[in-house]
Design a protein that fits this description.
The longest helix is centred in the first third of the chain and has 13 residues, at about 20-30. The protein has one domain: Rossmann fold, CATH 3.40.50. Mean pLDDT is about 85; it is low at about 1-10 and about 135-140. It starts with a helix and ends in a 6-residue tail after the last helix. About 50% of the residues lie in helices and about 20% in strands. The chain is built from 7 helices and 5 strands. The protein is globular and about 40 Å long. Helix 2 links the parallel strand 1 (about 10-15) and strand 2 (about 35-40). The protein has a 5-stranded parallel sheet with strand order 2-1-3-4-5. By secondary structure, it is of the alpha/beta class.
């Protein structure tokens, strides 16, 4: 029973990305850092293969790591719709992208979202951003 209580106190993170290798590496790193991580492929969300509302209700993420691929305008508009969904309004978002300058040029995003990475970014960078977003202090 103590194990169940401890896991409920762990912060819940969802990873929405299109690269399976990155998704798995990030999930493993977040879980090693004490987070609970659930994953989904962007294509499954965007084409409706994954029931996003059911995913959110099941996993109750407090933070979503969302990758914005090209074409930025289309993906940005989809993200804006997601952020307006009632069950996602209070979620913190960490965005990753391969070209921060192109994204900002296309949609002016940097003032609207929590964090945006440009390429190159790695698993460690994203885990650090998640810690900062949750104001988690790293223990030595």
């Amino acid at each position: 029973m103590p194990e169940l209580t401890r896991s409920r106190q762990r912060r819940r993170v969802a990873i929405f990305n299109s690269r399976p290798d990155f998704i798995e590496a990030l999930r493993a790193a977040l879980e090693a850092d004490g987070f609970v991580a659930h994953t989904a492929h962007l294509a499954d969300i965007q084409d409706g293969t994954l029931d996003l509302l059911a995913f959110v209700h099941l996993h109750e993420p407090e933070l979503i790591i969302y990758d914005l691929p090209r074409p930025y305008e289309r993906h940005w508009n989809f993200l804006r719709l997601l952020k307006e969904t009632a069950s996602l309004k209070d979620v913190t978002w960490v965005l990753t992208t391969t070209d921060k300058q192109a994204l900002e040029g296309a949609v002016g995003a940097s003032g609207v979202v929590q964090i945006i990475f440009g390429e190159p970014y790695g698993v460690v960078d994203v885990v650090d951003a998640v810690r900062k977003a949750f104001a988690v202090t790293v223990k030595d």
